[in-house]
Write a structure and sequence with these properties.
alpha+beta, 3-stranded antiparallel β-sheet, hpI Integrase, Chain A, DNA polymerase, domain 1, 3 domains, 7 strands
């Protein structure tokens, strides 16, 4: 059977070197609607370049870009070695993609929406919100580049490099840039699994934002005493939330805000973090230290509260409606600022402060790993190096005098 051409790769027509002629790039693709090969031309940019050398350099860039996109499966008919054959192993993805494109275009916007929809029930709400916000920026940028309605194969490595250059121009932090890379890696892994692309366009891209340490700092002892005295008097509900973080390492977002009385076993001195609220979507259990268990029963009387109530109700005490998403953060920041303390102290700092105190008290690392709900010693080691720092009693107590 005669092999059928699908694409003829781009070449330059330089009008035999005549600078007065209309130089252009030409290539051919089989139109999936008609089944016929059609020749296309690209004149962009040549007329404004006065020298032959300049035009050849411009042509090389256009040819490279078009070739990469065509090899990735893009064709110019998708709106919502020079000859490639449909059974050529090296370019097998082209022929396979050609057949699929006849069924319909999978645009950037459509597939991003599909990715978000397919994972919505697998992610915690905060994680889903992060993916939505990051991919919204990608979609808006693609829209500004007139790519959003085109097939997803237009997101080649050069295009993604341009996107990261756009992000870096916004002076984003290194952590934010890494978060974008994480989100986009998941997106392209999904597209690979769905056979919408044949390689990730992120390969080889290195992008680093401004180095800014935004992690909440553990609270120093003197500052902790100031905060404790102020919060206990001004906001008892906030003080209870601080203690849940300090003693039980419960994360201050969904885990703490949606904690219910029925999740707390006061006699067994344990708290169950259900999979619906846990960061890693797994039901987990943490211990309640003795002094905190006494506080919960004698001061807050949780044993007398209806089991289905949220511990942190909307009106300052346990109730059927949970606290608002950012309420604790705002209230903590208000008291911190009134005391003129460092803005590096955040509501989340109470968890890191408790972990620091536990390390100083000599609690074994394995016990802390379980209480922190880490899956490996490596995770716990990384956590302590970042938030606590390396601690050595020998260096602290036995270092020789100068």
């Amino acid at each position: 059977m005669k092999r059928q051409k699908v694409i003829i790769l781009p070449q330059l027509n330089d009008c035999k070197g005549d600078l007065l002629g209309n130089w252009f790039i030409y290539y051919s693709c089989r139109n999936p609607k008609t089944g016929r090969m059609e020749r296309l031309r690209v004149y962009n940019g040549f007329s404004g370049i006065p020298t032959a050398a300049g035009r050849h350099k411009h042509a090389e860039k256009l040819i490279a870009d078009l070739t990469n996109r065509l090899k990735a499966g893009w064709t110019p008919f998708q709106e919502d070695n020079l000859v490639i054959y449909d059974d050529h192993v090296m370019y097998e993805n082209i022929a396979k993609n050609f057949g699929r494109k006849q069924k319909g275009i999978r645009s950037v916007r459509t597939l991003v929406s599909e990715f978000l929809s397919s994972n919505k029930n697998l992610w915690a709400p905060k994680t889903h919100g992060t993916y939505v916000s990051k991919l919204r920026i990608l979609t808006q940028w693609c829209e500004s580049q007139h790519l959003v309605k085109k097939d997803v194969s237009v997101l080649t490595q050069p295009v993604m490099k341009d996107f990261f250059d756009f992000l870096l121009a916004r002076d984003l932090s290194e952590r934010t840039i890494e978060k974008y890379k994480q989100v986009l890696t998941r997106l392209f892994d999904y597209l690979l699994d769905q056979k919408q692309i044949h390689e990730s366009p992120l390969t080889g891209i290195i992008a680093r934002g401004k180095v800014v340490d935004q992690a909440p700092k553990p609270i120093l002892k003197d500052d902790l005493e100031l905060l404790k005295a102020a919060i206990m008097v001004q906001d008892p509900q906030l003080w209870l939330a601080c203690q849940f973080q300090y003693y039980c390492f419960i994360r201050p977002g969904t885990e703490l805000r949606l904690l219910k009385v029925q999740d707390i076993n006061l006699q067994g001195k344990i708290i169950t973090i259900t999979s619906e609220r846990a960061k890693n979507r797994t039901t987990e259990i943490v211990q309640i230290p003795n002094q905190f268990q006494v506080e919960l029963t004698t001061k807050y009387n949780l044993q007398d509260i209806p089991k289905d109530f949220f511990v942190f109700g909307r009106h300052g005490y346990p109730g059927p409606e949970p606290m608002g998403k950012n309420t604790f953060r705002v209230r903590f920041n208000h008291i911190r600022d009134a005391l003129k303390l460092s803005k590096e102290y955040k509501f989340y700092s109470w968890k890191h402060t408790g972990a620091t105190a536990a390390v100083d008290a000599g609690i074994p690392e394995r016990h802390l790993m379980n209480q922190l709900r880490h899956k490996s010693f490596e995770s716990t080691d990384h956590y302590f190096r970042r938030h606590v720092g390396y601690r050595s009693p020998a260096i602290q107590d036995d270092f020789p005098d100068i």
